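Quick one: co-fold with pyridoxal-5'-phosphate.
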Amino acid sequence: VYNFSAGPAVLPESVLREVQEEMMCLPGAGASLLEISHRDKLFIEILQDAESTLRSLLGISDDYSVMFMQGGATLQFSAVAANLLRGTGKKAEYLLTGSWGKKAIEEAKKEGNVGVLFDAAKTNYDRLPTASDYSCPDDAAYLYYCSNETIQGVQFASEPECPDSVPLVSDASSDFLCRPLPIDRYGLVYACAQKNAGPAGVTVVVMRKDLIDIADENIPGYLHYKNHHENESEWNTPPTFAIYVLGKVARWLRDDIGGLANMEDINRQKSESLYKIIDESNGFYRGHAQTDCRSLMNVTFNLPSEELTTKFVAEAGSHRLAALKGHRSVGGIRASIYNAMPREGVEALGNFMTDFASRNG
Ligand code: PLP
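Sure, here it is.
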């Protein structure tokens, strides 16, 4: 089955095979990785290797801390604001471009003063702001955005305009590692792993070290980035299995794919082939995102009716094309084509879409 799920999602086949091979007995351990302590030298090496592979993939300098946390991307909605907003007397500014940004704002409001500089609600979150749509004050606690809104399928092509004095914060959960990322433009980037980076259970946080000390000492210990940074992601038991698989995915990207620029080329080819079918369908398929905001990862589109949408999902299922139903808040179809979705899977979906339109258009 080709699995178009928005997450947890496909993993590279070679990674799954390696994990299967090592599941009963991790080389050198005499036990499964699932059975060894997070303080065991073998696991520490796995964690350090995952971090250094990520650092080399993304070009992350020593000015940044890389932390592996639990709680999903959702905990980061609170953690970001608890660390960088609570007690500062400042206002945090948000660009609201979809469902995940909205949830992040709800949580941040519990921590302090929040402003929304841009809200795409009027056009049902089909577009992104340009520099002329907003202006971020120089003294904001941070400017927050979601680089790829998974539900709507809108993705920033590059970083939004942000004053040098303001830390830029990104929820990169659904496009992390899909292309090179200029980390030095950011104060903080976080991503849950279960789309592009590994299994559910681990969230990667990349944070500029000089921001780590801003937080009030009284915030809950788990939320406090300083605890994770100072203890090298071992403040408590980290999600050992998820970190182990994430390290293998990062290695696959570096060694098999040849790095993030290559991955971006592949992702562009895959997504463009589907958008082309949408654009050439004479209005049978209507993309949700405006053309210049389209996501490389989540291709969202509608069909002429609810009945045809149901039929599309059912027929696709019998062609072994799974999990294509759009999110309930947007409807239609969503094809999530993360890094590990093979070209053949996208090609099979494209052929099905063309055939379905010709039979039902
Ligand atoms: N942010 C984005 C962009 C997402 O796509 C998701 C999950 O789909 C989340 C946040 C929430 O992630 P989690 O379920 O790990 O809390």
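If it helps, Residues 7, 72-74, 100, 146, 150, 171, 173-174, 192 surround pyridoxal-5'-phosphate (CB under 6 Å).
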